[in-house]
Amino acid sequence: MKKLLLSALALLSSASMVAQDKVFEGFEGWDYVMADWLPDGWTEQNTDENIFMLEEGAFTWHVSNREGTLPYPPEGSCYAVVYYAYEKDENDAKVDLPQDEWMISPVIAVSENSTLSFYAGYSPFFLFDVNNENVDWGKMDFKEGKRKPSTTLKIYVRSNGGEWVMLKDMYDEWVETSFADLFNNYFDSKFRKYSFDLSEYAGTEVEVAFRFVGMYGNTMEIDAFQITDAAVGVDRAFADKRVRPTAYAQGGNIVVEPRGAKSVDIYAANAGLVASKTLDGVNCTCIDGLASGLYLLRFNDGTIVKIMK
Ligand SMILES: [Ca+2]
Ligand SMILES: [Ca+2]
After folding, report:
1. d(CA 64, ligand 1 centre) in Å
2. What is the C-alpha separation between 293 and 104, in angstroms, rounded?
3. For residue 77, which ligand has an atom nearest its CA?
4. Ligand nearest to the CA of 226
5. Dist CA 51 CA 60 (whole Å)
6. Which ligand has its closest atom nearest to the C-alpha of 62?
7. How far apart are CA 129 and CA 152, in angstroms?
8. 225 alpha carbon to ligand 1 midpoint, in Å?
């Protein structure tokens, strides 16, 4: 009997891998309403609670259609975007805030022929800190020794849940370009396509991270994320390590399923932190007495769940 059970489990496990020609995410599943949304399986790590709460998550990775002066998406109508963060001081002047915002893909199995590609929208000029103390505007050049990054985009991959390995820092691509060239020819935000060979990760399951990090930079976007010759769906054993806490609205309350989480902070979209609860990691907890509205639940493992109740 035990043997039968084991082979049944083995069968389940192998059936959970779904071979596909490619994994593609164009960020088109957004409902045009939710203020801070990412596709199923995509997660994020936020700079801090201040950034997380400002402007309904606009300073964190989220999905949107094109707004203002941002470039048109290379695919469909929507993309993942993170705005550069600022707040207003007492004189109503903009004060830039440092950011370190991560957007992380689902787990994807790769083969020796797998290639990662995506479009990144950004302004090369604003990868540099062009505050006045760094720029001689008369000479149209950086001051001596004052060429330095503002906010850059770093791309990482990690295999089987291990350490993140950087594939690229956008700043490095432009570090030799002259100030005048950047200003005259690379000022506008445009989409550029990037590709990376993932063959060294063949036979493993990877995640890809987009890290928007620095200060005084500009808004960036990601679209048409793709890994060709990949298998979607995850090895069951590995997936089990990634079970995350969740929550849902029920009968006017919020029910929290901890799934290993030990605490949760509850934020109202317009009122900040309204409650903190200790969890036992196992049993569902019901949170009542909250007014109707949008809530953001932040668990101690970094998982964020948004709920309208
Ligand atoms: Ca798109
Ligand atoms: Ca977000």
Report:
1. 9
2. 27
3. 1
4. 1
5. 7
6. 2
7. 10
8. 9
How far apart are the C-alpha atoms of 283 and 5, rounded to whole Å? 28
Contact 144, 135 (CB under 8 A): no
Residues in Cβ contact with 258 at an 8 Å cutoff, skipping those fewer than 6 apart: 245, 264, 279, 280, 281, 282, 283, 284, 285, 299
Range(s) for CATH 2.60.120.200 in the chain?
Answer: 14-240
Give the domain 246-308 fold.
Immunoglobulin-like (2.60.40)
Q: Could you list which residues have their CB under 5 Å from ion ligand 2?
A: 36, 57, 60-62
Profile the chain (309 residues) by mean pLDDT over runs of 10 residues: 43 46 89 89 89 86 91 95 93 93 95 94 97 95 97 97 97 97 95 95 95 97 91 42 74 88 84 87 89 83 76
Q: What are the start and end residues of each CATH 2.60.40 domain in the chain?
A: 246-308
Distance 37 CA to ligand 1 centre (A): 14
Q: Summarize pLDDT for 260-272 with one digit per residue, the tens.
A: 889 998 888 767 7
Q: Which ligand is located closest to the Cα atom of residue 80? A: 1
14-240 fold: Jelly Rolls (2.60.120)
Q: Are 146 and 133 in contact (CB under 8 A)?
A: yes
- Asked if residue 153 lies in contact with residue 212, where contact means CB atoms within 8 angstroms, the answer is yes
